[in-house]
Write a structure and sequence with these properties.
Pfam family, one: adh_short
Oligomer: single chain
Protein name: SDR family oxidoreductase
Number of domains: 1
CATH topology: Rossmann fold
Family: Belongs to the short-chain dehydrogenases/reductases (SDR) family.
Keywords: Oxidoreductase
CATH class: Alpha Beta
Distance between the termini: 39 Å
GO molecular function: oxidoreductase activity, acting on the CH-OH group of donors, NAD or NADP as acceptor
Strand order of the largest sheet: 3-2-1-4-5-6-7
Number of helices: 7
CATH architecture: 3-Layer(aba) Sandwich
Structural class: alpha/beta
Order of helices and strands: EHEEHEHEHEHHHE
Strand content: 5-15%
Length: 262
């Protein structure tokens, strides 16, 4: 069979967490264009749900939410070929370590780290049994460039995710399952706009000033702008495809040149 971008994922079942908006929605749409059957999850069903996806409403920051998704996917489709652990985000206040409570830390760790761990644990046995599968962890360049004044728990959780992803790859790649990390820089989404508003509110500045502050904290973006969700989705689409069959255990940074080291 000749693979094209339109059919290279034909017959594959894919789950995209946080797939109702932003980067997750763009990834879901990209995988569907390649022929995959796509399931997306979020806390609430979106008003403009992506046509053709199967939606499961669940709060993945809680163990019963992840188990609900695992059960429904396996009961309905029998197995999973592609898992995109995209859900994540920061809802903690700006202001550095002193303003952060235990709940702030626990919430970030549950959402950005433990939710992917639980989903991997639920779907990996089936992938290993079949001797094939792909898991993508969407991390962040904040794993290497943390913004201590605004998203410290988020950055710490993403650093844990990158480390875990590499270790998991070492364990399961010999059994046919590829595990990869994608670490975007700043992506232009609604969530990023809300983060700017939160930073502005805590610092008494404007959203534009907050955005400039984030740019400065990151050391600038040589490309001159944040990424678009579709650009991240295109990288993910390649990594889960047969064209990337030898790629595993690697963290792919997509940041417009933000990280200043090789």
């Amino acid at each position: 069979m000749d693979f094209t971008f339109e059919n290279e994922l034909a017959g594959k079942i894919a789950l995209v967490t946080g797939g109702s908006k932003g980067t997750g929605k763009a990834i879901a749409e990209r995988l569907m264009k390649a022929g995959a059957t796509v399931i997306s999850t979020a806390r609430n069903k979106p008003e403009d749900e992506t046509t053709g996806t199967h939606f499961i409403a669940a709060d993945l920051s809680k163990p019963d939410g992840t188990q609900k998704v695992i059960n429904q996917v396996l009961d309905t489709f029998g197995h999973l070929d592609i898992l995109i652990n995209n859900m994540g985000g920061s809802e903690t206040p700006g202001g550095g370590f002193a303003v952060l409570s235990d709940q702030d830390w626990e919430s970030s760790i549950q959402t950005n780290f433990l939710a992917p761990v639980r989903l991997d644990r639920g779907f990996l046995p089936g992938m290993i049994k079949r001797g094939e599968g792909v898991i993508i962890h969407i991390a962040s360049i904040q794993a290497k460039l943390p913004l201590y004044d605004s998203t410290l728990p988020y950055a710490a959780a993403k650093a844990a995710l990158v480390n875990y992803s590499k270790s998991l790859s070492n364990e399961v790649s010999p059994r046919g399952v590829r595990v990869l990390t994608v670490s975007p820089g700043w992506i232009m989404t609604t969530a990023s706009s809300r983060m700017m508003e939160r930073i502005a509110g805590s610092s008494g500045s404007t959203a534009e000033q907050a955005a400039n502050g984030v740019m400065e904290a990151l050391g600038g973006i040589p490309f001159g702008r944040p990424a678009w969700p579709q650009e991240v989705a295109e990288l993910v689409g390649f990594l889960v495809s047969p064209r990337a069959a030898y790629l595993t255990g690697t963290d792919y940074v997509i940041d417009g040149g933000t990280i200043p080291t090789v």
